[in-house]
Structures are given as structure tokens and as C-alpha cells.
């Protein structure tokens, strides 16, 4: 297995190189001037030229890419044209918020989608199956921005059950930063009040972001389990007198797990990099908003940094999913 992991990590380097090259070419193909976007329309030509020279934008594109790759090999993502901070520092600030939101959304999707999909498969053709299919249809068709506004209006404005945008209330003192995840930092600081406040702020954006994932997971779980339940070995297990719970837990779910692992991996990667609307509506300071602002301001180094992080996240998630296959299917070997 170690050799397989090392080979995949080596291939991952080529993937990230391809991602960096594609992001560089696409961003520099835009007919726009990053210097004018950073300094404004009232900037003089001397100021624009000074900005280009300072940030290396006056060099030929192959030279710019060579300089960028040289820094990247040293672990330096460069400096943001907009914030003038190191992109690594910016991502270290914004990425934990997105990771925390993504984990909350995936947890909601798993807690709702898996049991509902299992029950729908077991109650095939009955009322519960119909309700699960309606949930899957509505969850997959409802726009995220509409669901976010509706959730805020109902549960925050009208009922007052849950807090509004942000990660903490204005009167809450943020815990010392260790991981960047407020819930984890509150646990490490042994501050239950801040922990509860952070969890309450996580509920609405987590539910909104995870609604589509829960719907998709419900549909995929139902489909995969129905296919497995029709196999001969399931009928044989039932004929031998095995209890229904044992048949489902030991035989059916284990064999239906592989497509579900693939779906979960894809969902995690997409949620980690595609939470722009949710982060914007809930004022969640994550990399989605950072990437959007950087793209609007033509901050090419920041856009490339976010793209590389997204490519790395997808690659690592796919590797973990492939490794998890062996735990569910003994026929899979990495030797």
C-alpha cells in the first residue's frame, strides 16, 4: 500500500502542475489590466507602470510563469495584488472557515441522506419511499441562494430560533486561534459558551450547504441498496434465517458502500470549493468569498493559489476514497 500511496502522490504533482499551468494561461488570457484593477481608474500611467514592475507584470508570460513555479517549489504561493499579503497567509486565514462549514454540511448530508435512503430502499414503493424521493427531488432542484434567504427569514428573523450571519455573535469573544476552526478552538480553550454559540451559527449555513448533498446521497443510497437487495446472496442470507438488521448491516450496506464512498468524496471536494453563495449570504469568511473578490479584482496570484488548493483538496479526497475501498471490498488490493 505504501508504494501505491507514493505513486499516487507523485502523480498528484503532475496534476497540480497541470492545474497551475491552466490557471495561469486562463487568467492571463483575459483582456484586462490587473494594475488598473488594483489601483483604480484614476491612477496615472507612471503609477500603473511602477505597479507592474513591482509585481513582475511587465515581464513576458513564460518568465512570469517560471518565476511563479520557482517560488511554488519553495512553498511560496506569492503575494496577493489586492491585499499585498502572502497568499499562504490569506489562505491560512480563510480556509479553516470553509473547512468547518464543509464538515458541518457533510455531517448533515450523512445524518439525513444515509438513513433516509436506507429506509426508502427497505420501504420500496410505500409512502416513506415516496417522501424520500420527493425530498431528493426538491433538495436537488432548490437553488442554494433561495434556500439560504428562506432559512434566514424563517429561523432567524421570524422565529428567532437560530442566530444570523457570521461565525459568532458580536458579544462573543473569539477563542485563541490554534486550528482556525472556531468549534475546535473553543473546545481547546474549554469555553462551552463560545462552543455552543459557534455550533448554533453553523447550523443554518451547514443545513443550506448540505441540502443538495443530502438529497443526492438519499437518491444514491436508495438506488445502490435496491440493486444490492435484489442479488441472489441477499435472498440466500434471508433464506438461511438471518435477521433483517444483520442482512442489511453486514451484507447489503457493505456491498452498496463503494458508489456511496465515491459520491461522498465528490461531494466533499465540491462543497469545499463551491460554497461561494452560502458564504456570501451568511457572511462566512471562507475561501469562496476570497476567491470571488480576487477574481473580480483580477488578483491573478490569489486566484491561482485558490485553484491549487482546490486541486490539492480534490486529489487528496480521491486518494482517501480509493484507500477506503479496500476496507469495504476485500477483492481490492494495492500490492
UniProtKB/TrEMBL annotation:
InterPro entries (alphabetical): BPD_transp_1_N, MetI-like, MetI-like_sf
Entry membrane topology: Multi-pass membrane protein
Entry's Gene Ontology cellular component terms: plasma membrane
All copies of domain ABC transmembrane type-1, residue ranges: 95-325
Alphabetical list of Pfam families matching this protein: BPD_transp_1, BPD_transp_1_N
Coiled coil: none
PANTHER family, A to Z: DIPEPTIDE TRANSPORT SYSTEM PERMEASE PROTEIN DPPB-RELATED
Family membership: Belongs to the binding-protein-dependent transport system permease family.
Protein known as: Peptide ABC transporter permease
Organism of this sequence: Deinococcus irradiatisoli
Amino acid at each position: 500500500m505504501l508504494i501505491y500511496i507514493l505513486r499516487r502522490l507523485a502523480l498528484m504533482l503532475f496534476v497540480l502542475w497541470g492545474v497551475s499551468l491552466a490557471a495561469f494561461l486562463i487568467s492571463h488570457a483575459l483582456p484586462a489590466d490587473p494594475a488598473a484593477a488594483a489601483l483604480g481608474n484614476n491612477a496615472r500611467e507612471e503609477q500603473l507602470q511602477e505597479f507592474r514592475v513591482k509585481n513582475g507584470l511587465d515581464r513576458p508570460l513564460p518568465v512570469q510563469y517560471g518565476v511563479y513555479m520557482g517560488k511554488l517549489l519553495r512553498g511560496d504561493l506569492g503575494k496577493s495584488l489586492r491585499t499585498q499579503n502572502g497568499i499562504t497567509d490569506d489562505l491560512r486565514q480563510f480556509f479553516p472557515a470553509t473547512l468547518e462549514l464543509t464538515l458541518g454540511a457533510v455531517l448533515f448530508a450523512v445524518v439525513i441522506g444515509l438513513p433516509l435512503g436506507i429506509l426508502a430502499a427497505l420501504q420500496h414503493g410505500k409512502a416513506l419511499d415516496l417522501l424520500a424521493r420527493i425530498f431528493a427531488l426538491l433538495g436537488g432542484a432548490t437553488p442554494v441562494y433561495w434556500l439560504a434567504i428562506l432559512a434566514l427569514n424563517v429561523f432567524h428573523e421570524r422565529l428567532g430560533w437560530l442566530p444570523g450571519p457570521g461565525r459568532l455573535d458580536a458579544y462573543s469573544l473569539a477563542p485563541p486561534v490554534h486550528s482556525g476552526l472556531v468549534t475546535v478552538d473553543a473546545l481547546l480553550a474549554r469555553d462551552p459558551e463560545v462552543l455552543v454559540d459557534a455550533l448554533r451559527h453553523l447550523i443554518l449555513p451547514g443545513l443550506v450547504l448540505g441540502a443538495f448533498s443530502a438529497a443526492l446521497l438519499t437518491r444514491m443510497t436508495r438506488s445502490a441498496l435496491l440493486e444490492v437487495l435484489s442479488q441472489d446472496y441477499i435472498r440466500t442470507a434471508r433464506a438461511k434465517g438471518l435477521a433483517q438488521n444483520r442482512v442489511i448491516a453486514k451484507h447489503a450496506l457493505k456491498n452498496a458502500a463503494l458508489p456511496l464512498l465515491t459520491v461522498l468524496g465528490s461531494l466533499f471536494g465540491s462543497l469545499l470549493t463551491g460554497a461561494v453563495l452560502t458564504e456570501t449570504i451568511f457572511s462566512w469568511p471562507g475561501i469562496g468569498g476570497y476567491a470571488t473578490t480576487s477574481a473580480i479584482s483580477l488578483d491573478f496570484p490569489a486566484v491561482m493559489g485558490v485553484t491549487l488548493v482546490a486541486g490539492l483538496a480534490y486529489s487528496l479526497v480521491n486518494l482517501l476514497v480509493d484507500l477506503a475501498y479496500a476496507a469495504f471490498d476485500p477483492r481490492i488490493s494495492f500490492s
